[in-house]
Amino acid sequence: MESSPEFLPLFSSTSNKNMQCRDDILKKLYLGLHDYFTSASITIYLLDPLTQSFFKFYVSDDDFFLSESEQQWALNFSKQFLSQHDFVPFFDYYISNRLESPFLDTMKFSLDKQTFSYDCLDALFLFLFSEQGSLNGFVFIHDWENKRSLSLGKKSLLSQDVKDFVLDMVAALDTFFVHQKITNLLVEPEDFHSQFTRKDSVLESRILELTVLNDTSNALGYALTVESMVKLIFSAMNKLLNVEVASIFLYGLEAEAKFFFRDNCLIDSSLRKSIEDEMIMALSPFLFSIEFNSDIPSDVYRFYAQNIKFDPLKKVNSSVNVPLIFKEKVLGILYIGSSRIKAFSKKDSHFLHTLSNQFSINLERLKIVKTLERSRMATLIRSMDDAVIVLGQFHQLELMNPVARKIFSFDSENVDRRILVDCFKSLGIWTLYQQVLEDKKPLLNQKIELENFYFSVNINPVFSEEGQIEGTVLVFRDITDMLLMDKIKTQRLEVISKVNLIIKSITDLDNLLIVLIEFILNVSRAEMGSILLKEGDQYVCKIHSNFPEKIRKMYRYIDGEAISDAVIRSKKLSFVDDYLHSDQVSSSIKILLDWYLCIPIVVHNNLIGVINLAKKCEGGQLSLTQEDINTLTTITNLSGTAIHNAMLFEQNLANQKLEQELKIANEIQSKLLPLELPVLPNISLAALSVPAREIGGDYYDFFKLESGDVGIVLADIVGKGIPAGLFMAMLKSILKTHLPYFNSPKKALEKINAVLLKEHIIDKFVPLFYGILNLDTMKFTYSNAGHEPVILLSKGQFQQLDTLGLPLAAVLNSEYEEKTITLLDRDLLVFLTDGFVEVKHFDKGVFGLERLKQSILEFSSMDMDAFVQKLYQRVQNFSGSGSQQDDLTLIALNVDFQLGVPELRVAVDVKKVSVKSHKRYISYIRNIVEQFAKKMGFLESDIYNLKLAVNEAQANIIEHAYFEKEDGDIIFVFSAYVDCLKISIRDFGVQMDKKNIEHRLGDLNELEGSGLGLYLIKSFVDKLHYITHTQGTELCLVKYLNKGVSHGNYH
Amino acid sequence: MEIITKKFESEPRFVYVQLGLEGDDSGDVVLGDVELDIENQAKFVDVINGIFTDDMYNVLVDLKLVSYIDSSGLWALFEGHKKASQKNGNLVLLNPTKDVKRVLDITKVSSKMRVYGDYDEAVRSFIN
């Protein structure tokens, strides 16, 4: 029997004459009932209103006590009754069959039944109420010991007498309690006060308790990890209990995991150990099959201790262990301890119980959730193509999918932890795994090799809320194929970039081809290769390796076309695999082939060559893969540009060389043409020759014959460039040697033809017109060797002067005709090359003879210098295009008897000076001008003017024709005539834009640049004109001597 | 060609520039005819620019010994004149020879620049 609650002695110590004391009343009740239910077991339970628990009085037989839960049931039952019924002092509740009643504690009942082997199952409850409508207690009556029913031998269970008796007793008890309370308050006000306060604080703590329980219960419902739940439990305990150490041991939560939580412990290890021992001891009755200290490594367990400092000197003097049980399954144990003695009340343990119930329910819920999660995850993992292994906290295998099982050759998907660890260790995965655990960081894309297979391993730790590693997921992706591909690609890229690098560094075509063929043979593993490049219309083999053209051409398609020719035609790659057995190709070949590959080299859509590759048939060799072909194509494409560049480079080099040669030849040639025209009596002459390109093939010249006549030659040498230029020099020299001695053009030409052919100087035809003018008679005898006829304009009528005859150097012993006319005053002879007639306009067609005649007529009254310029411009403008199509050479000869005495027209003095285009020669030339002009008798002011004019012209040439380059040639020819000084200034630099010159000449207000110079020139000479030459320009200045004032030496 | 410059700091402030073939022993006077042309005009331009950097914009150029001038010489004079005018100064010419005067006239330079036959008259021109 439990000790009475402490307030009960108060009742007994209180004496009141009118009042029966509590024990008396209860004794009276017990005895009265005992009289009625003879031999039955009667127990009176009184309710402590503060704790809402019962304590027993007058137990007649202690063997059949009511269990806690049964007492609880009685309490709840009475409460329910009170809430549903009007007030009665007492209520009798008879249970006829205990087995069917709600209050049954089955376990205890079966125990009772076993112990006492009875079959009597009825019992009576008498609930005793106070006038305030609350339960004071109840009486429990049965006769199980005698195995007799209570109703045995009775009409009704309770007679009216008994009921009245009980009513009396209830009233007495109630009166006593009320009275006692009042008395108590009156007699002991202080005590009352303390009672009141106590009640208050009890209520407060009760409310706190309920709040904590409610909050914790809610929070537990949301918790998804054991750790978070444990945290909540500790926190709840902290709030309510005076705990110094606390710990939770959890067991059997996961399929194979056994948890013993241990963390954050500030208590010393020996204390911890003793706590652990105590907990296990407390739990041991539930854990029949588990051996704790045998197999499981210590780090497998975890222990949570509350974060409370516990003085190591102290001892744990009070402790409570509450098992965590759900549906008869033990999940673990809660422990609280304190150094104080009797630190925990029954109330505390009640609280702990409730807490533990909540905890257990939620642990179980979590378990279900986890199982669900696991199964879902497992399904997912199972279906993955990558191998997946999930390890638990203690390296135990949680999950392994079939792919993983296959890779690691495990027999089943349940592998023992140790086997797995050993396997990982042997494969080197263990180190990686440990590293992940240590770093707490995932390891990604780690490459490992497993028996010639490559895997990319990802190891991801799974963290708990506290940041601890709960497990690890290992994913193995088979990257063997990928790596292989990568490897090949890398190799190819290396080759390609190498080629690229090399070919970029080589500009020399030959070296480039050597490197290239070496590379492609290497890559393709072929022995035979050749590179053909386009030269003109042909594709020429530039380099080969065991693959001369002779052999290459034998590899043909069935239709007879060589493979490379087909590629050249189609510009498409051709690959003949297994050449021996292919039915597309001709089999009549010298060397048996595995395959033949022909790659076109295409740059900007133009085929510039082809690469041929062939592999000899040796058997057992790998064929060319598409990858190989792609690589070769890439290399070809890359080198195509380089080859093209190299070709252009070589061509450019050749061009530069040619250009240089041309320049030299041009200089020679331009000097071959007469620098100045002869001055003839009664004849006005002008000539012009403008080549289409650097070196023209046109040639004109004047020769003074032995007879005193003048020979006029116009030739058009077929061909251009250096040979034509050189030949012109030859021609000039031959003509100079022979012409003076012939008075007949026919004979002269026959001689020249013979010389040309005899000397084998050139294999080109030379169309040439030759005329001899007798200055006395004005008879003009001419012979034409296949040249454009000369046009004569006489009295408004045109006549073409022509004779039959082949060009010179065409056939041996060629015969020529000759004709003679007599020129009249104002007759105009125009010698011109075919370019004048044949010049084309894209729309209007050729210029033609008619337009030419019209133009000649139009300009015929002009000064001859102006005439040639105008005619040239007319033809130029007609073509419309910027560039001149053909060489244009023109000689115009006008008979003018008004020109007077022939002698007057002859230069009495000529001085030729050649200087370089350097400024320092300006004053030098100035001095020459001064001396020459002084000698001629010019006035000082005129001399000054001439000096200045020449000076400005020279400066202009240096600046604008040679752009201040100092190595250009400037040739000055000073010709002194009776009445004038003619100065010709010839340069070989950039030709001046005539329009620009004219523009500048007209704009004189601005004192800038060469404009001022040109203005001065024009101001200080009487005549000025430009002649455009093959190269460069000739400026002619004329200054007349002041008439009537003659100081010169020529008079 | 020798160019001698003399600075006059009292009012009117100006620089007197003489061109000649060579300086005499004293270094104050130039002697001998000189031709101002494309070959040596750069030297003259340098001297004039040097004067302007000394913050003097009144310049009197004595052409007495310049027997010949070409377009670049004319350009040098005219450029000097333009620069001086921009700074409210004046570059004036003194005593050009007959031939040079003719060139100045023909090119209309003389209509744009002041040409004096007398030193004092030229100096007085700086006062206004």
Could you give the topology of this structure?
The complex is a heterodimer of chains A (1051) and B (128).
Chain A (H helix, E strand, L loop, with lengths): L7 H6 L8 H15 L4 E8 L4 E5 L10 H17 L5 E6 L10 H11 L6 E7 L5 E8 L17 H28 L1 H34 L3 H15 L4 E6 L11 E2 L5 H15 L19 E3 L12 E9 L2 E10 L7 H37 L4 E6 L4 E4 L1 H6 L9 H11 L1 H11 L3 E8 L2 E11 L5 E10 L1 H26 L3 H16 L3 E8 L2 E8 L3 H4 L10 H8 L3 E4 L15 E11 L2 E11 L9 H47 L10 E8 L7 E7 L5 E7 L4 H18 L6 H15 L8 E6 L5 E7 L4 E5 L2 E5 L17 E4 L5 E5 L2 H4 L1 E2 L3 E2 L1 H12 L4 H16 L8 E8 L13 E8 L3 H17 L3 H22 L7 E8 L3 E8 L6 H9 L6 H12 L2 E6 L4 E8 L11
Parallel strand pairs in A: 7-8
Antiparallel strand pairs in A: 1-2, 1-5, 3-4, 4-5, 6-8, 6-10, 9-10, 11-12, 11-15, 13-14, 14-15, 16-17, 16-20, 18-19, 19-20, 21-32, 22-23, 23-24, 24-25, 25-28, 26-27, 26-29, 29-32, 30-31, 33-34, 34-35, 35-37, 36-37
Chain B lengths: L1 E7 L5 E7 L1 E2 L6 E2 L2 E3 L4 H13 L4 E5 L3 E4 L1 H16 L3 E5 L3 H9 L2 H4 L2 E2 L2 H7 L3
Helix pairs in contact in B: 1-2
Descriptive key words:
heterodimer; A: 1051 residues; alpha+beta; five-stranded antiparallel β-sheet; five-stranded mixed β-sheet; 24% strand; rod-shaped; disordered N terminus; disordered C terminus; B: 128 residues; alpha/beta; two-stranded antiparallel sheet; globular
Explain what this protein looks like in three dimensions.
The complex is a heterodimer of chains A (1051) and B (128). By secondary structure, chain A is of the alpha+beta class. Chain A contains 26 helices and 37 strands. Helices cover 41% and strands 24% of the residues of chain A. The N and C termini of chain A lie far apart (176 Å). Chain B has 128 residues and is an alpha/beta fold. Chain B contains five helices and nine strands. In chain B, the strands form three sheets. Chain B has a five-stranded mixed β-sheet. Chain B has a two-stranded antiparallel sheet with strand order 3-4. Chain B has a two-stranded parallel ribbon with strand order 5-7. Chain B is globular. The termini of chain B are far apart.
